[in-house]
Write a structure and sequence with these properties.
seven-stranded parallel sheet; Isoleucyl-tRNA Synthetase, Domain 1; alpha/beta
Length: 509
């Protein structure tokens, strides 16, 4: 496709104190859908993800399992990369914060902030939650414990450097309120503005004295940079910030950060404040999705409802796993993954839906036209359904532009239902006995329905989409414009179809 401009999308980098879980998969597959969609639009996409590898939590975990921190990072970062490969994640790079290139950019950025007088030295006395990798206040505790990790925080007294956050809070608030820094969905925007209005946000520590596994402060090597402070800088270090600014100037500011709502404060308040201090443009959009439960309960090893993403892939395959993850509830909201309904949904939407429609269409084309895409009358073509399909595409495009991932996917299901209804309405098996011309029109229309479904499905289920296009004899050329791709009636007449095994077979409970 012809390039229409740059589009930079990034997930957070994931902490490597443990193996990846379903939440990591959910965030990353969602971002992958958006990245693939923007490639379809013809944009020059940069899609980044990676692993966050420093800090006291990694130090302690490595000690527990008898490994060095680097050995633990190598092992668990490898698990993330292998999982993302299995999920068909199309990231352009995978960044690790233990890489020299990241460290160099971070030191440059921190030195620039230091030279701009954005830091000051002080002593910190207070509570620290290793699980959160942050200092925590008394008022946040529940029965003396961190509400997220159910552990008692440590009491710490040490020298730190602090970032002058308070200087930048009014500007951050103004930019969010005006919509220049977009925080979405709207519920998250209100949440962030509420934090800025109602919570006392103090200057924050950017360094640790007692932690050794990290990047040394360039202006005081007795300190290492606070893990989440340098992790946020991945978004610019990955672009060569301070080392080779050509890529940085091409892609920054990022078009969208796709994150979980648990790190919204870091991305929508602390990160913009640091960028303002550095004199750099702010992200265009921060999109924070919600939490999910499993069959109504929070994921818990005690309850026994933890779902291993690799097990899902082993059971259902890559594309079906992507579909099942993304179709559960509106992206951006809290919701429930109905794992006990996975097989039922797999059968209804994939085996009986997408797969059955394609298989029926190919079987009838083979039976009635020897496997050749028939020619249809032009006047019939102009009067058949294209307006409705075009409207569906417009809704699909708008939804993905707004990161309404689940809603966009629902348009695929809708198109399958329309095509199934068309079969029942036109009854090709009866037309075969009495009206070959009308049968040709109907079969061409059904093949064209499947072509549109394949392209609409591509960002969500890329392998399935490509199998559908191969079966239909569709030659997808990268230079084809999006508008041409979604135009009704571009399936070439006379094309030989390639009927194969059904895409998805029914599963028994």
């Amino acid at each position: 496709m012809s390039k229409k401009g740059n589009f930079y999308i990034a997930t957070p980098i994931y902490y490597v104190n443990d193996r990846p879980h379903l939440g990591h998969a959910y965030t990353t597959v969602s971002a992958d859908v958006v990245a693939r969609f923007h490639r379809m639009l013809g944009e020059n996409v940069l899609f980044l993800t990676g692993t966050d590898e420093h800090g006291s939590k990694v130090e302690k975990k490595a000690e527990e399992v008898g490994k060095t921190p680097k050995e633990l990072c190598d092992e668990n970062s490898g698990h993330f990369q292998m999982l993302f490969d299995r999920l068909s994640i199309s990231n352009d790079d995978f960044i690790r914060t233990t890489e020299d290139s990241h460290k160099e950019s971070v030191k440059i950025f921190m030195s620039e902030l230091y030279e701009k007088d954005s830091f000051y030295e002080d002593r910190y006395e207070g509570l620290y939650c290793t699980g959160c990798e942050r200092f925590i206040t008394e008022k946040e505790l529940v029965e003396g414990k961190c509400p997220d990790h159910k552990t008692y925080p440590e009491k710490i007294t040490e020298k730190n450097y602090f970032f002058k956050l308070k200087e930048y809070l009014p500007k951050v608030k103004e930019l969010i309120a005006r919509g220049e820094l977009q925080v979405e969905p709207e519920s998250r925007r209100k949440e962030v503005l509420g934090l800025l209005d109602n919570e006392v946000l103090d200057d924050f520590s950017v360094s640790r004295e007692s932690v050794k596994w990290g990047i040394p402060l360039p202006f005081d090597d007795s300190q290492v940079i606070y893990v989440w402070v340098e992790a946020l800088q991945f978004y610019i270090s990955a672009l060569g910030y301070g080392r080779d600014n050509e890529k940085f100037e091409q892609f920054w500011p990022v078009d969208v950060h796709v994150i979980g709502k648990d790190i919204i404060k870091f991305h929508a308040i602390y990160w913009p404040a640091m960028l303002l201090a550095a004199g750099l443009p702010l992200p265009k959009k921060i999109y924070a999705h919600g939490y999910f439960t499993i069959n109504g309960d929070k994921m818990s090893k005690t309850i026994g409802n933890v779902i291993d993403t690799n097990d899902l892939i082993d059971s259902f395959g890559t594309d079906a796993t992507r579909y099942l993850l993304l179709s559960q509830f509106p992206f951006g909201q809290d919701g429930d993954i109905k794992a006990d309904k996975f097989i039922e949904q797999y059968n209804a939407d994939l085996a009986n839906g997408i797969s059955n429609l394609l298989h029926r269409t190919l079987s009838m084309t083979e039976k009635y036209f020897n496997g050749i895409t028939p020619t249809m009358a032009e006047e019939e073509h102009l009067s058949l359904l294209p307006g409705g399909v075009e409207a569906l595409w417009n809704n699909y495009k708008n939804d993905l532009n707004e990161l309404k991932v689940e809603k966009a996917l629902s348009h695929v299901t809708m198109l399958v239902k329309v095509a199934d209804g068309y079969i029942e309405q036109t009854k090709p098996w009866e037309l075969a006995k009495e009206d070959q011309e009308k049968l040709a029109n109907v079969m061409y229309t059904l093949l064209e329905f499947n072509r549109h479904i394949s392209f609409m499905l591509y960002p969500f289920m890329p392998d399935t989409a490509e199998k559908m296009q191969t079966a239909l004899g569709v030659q997808y050329e990268e230079h084809t414009s999006f508008d041409e791709l979604i135009k009704w009636g571009t399936l070439e007449r006379g094309t030989k179809i390639k009927k194969d095994e059904p895409l998805f077979m029914r599963r028994e409970n």
